[in-house]
TrEMBL record:
Organism: Treponema succinifaciens (strain ATCC 33096 / DSM 2489 / 6091)
Higher taxonomy: Bacteria, Pseudomonadati, Spirochaetota, Spirochaetia, Spirochaetales
InterPro entries: EamA_dom (IPR000620), EmrE-like (IPR037185)
UniProt-listed Pfam families: EamA
Keyword Thylakoid applies: no
Any GO CC annotation of this UniProt entry: membrane
Keywords: Membrane, Transmembrane, Transmembrane helix
Protein name: EamA domain-containing protein
EamA domain sequence ranges: 4-139
Coiled coil feature spans: none
Transmembrane residue ranges: 33-56, 68-88
């Protein structure tokens, strides 16, 4: 079970890559906000299906106010991200939009250090420098 996080992380990466390519093809001639709403409806339906398939719906009553607040804020951030991402995909090149979008990795590491007090090591700093440098090289 210790390796399951890695399997799911790899699958997440594969599906994220497919998302970008499929979205770029699907958004052609479609308003980016409408495309985001359609995508969101599919994600919503799939998410609730998984909740019921796994029997997780009983946990709704156990969610406290703090959790609700942060889950709602996370949902708002996701929505804003998706709206901006689809607009960028619609008017830009995938090969330039995606590297910039993936700079979220760098921002997440910095925010995790600041707000979650996660360890910030030399290895993390070198990784951030490489990711940032790679992004700059890819978009120029």
């Amino acid at each position: 079970m210790k390796i399951m996080w890695l399997i799911f992380a790899i699958l997440s990466s594969v599906f994220a890559a497919l998302t970008s390519i499929l979205a770029k093809i699907g958004i052609d001639g479609v308003n980016s906000n409408l495309a985001t709403a359609i995508r969101t409806a599919v994600v919503l339906a799939l998410s609730w299906l998984m909740v019921f398939v796994t029997g997780a719906q009983s946990g709704i009553s156990e969610i406290n106010k703090r959790n609700w607040m942060f889950l709602i804020l996370s949902g708002l951030a996701t929505g804003a991200s998706w709206l901006c991402y689809y607009k960028a995909l619609q008017i830009g090149e995938v090969s330039k939009v995606i590297p910039i979008d993936k700079m979220s990795v760098v921002l997440t590491l910095i925010l995790a250090f600041i707000f979650l007090h996660e360890q910030f090591t030399t290895k993390t700093l070198v990784g951030i420098i490489f990711l940032t440098t790679g992004t700059i090289l890819m978009i120029k």
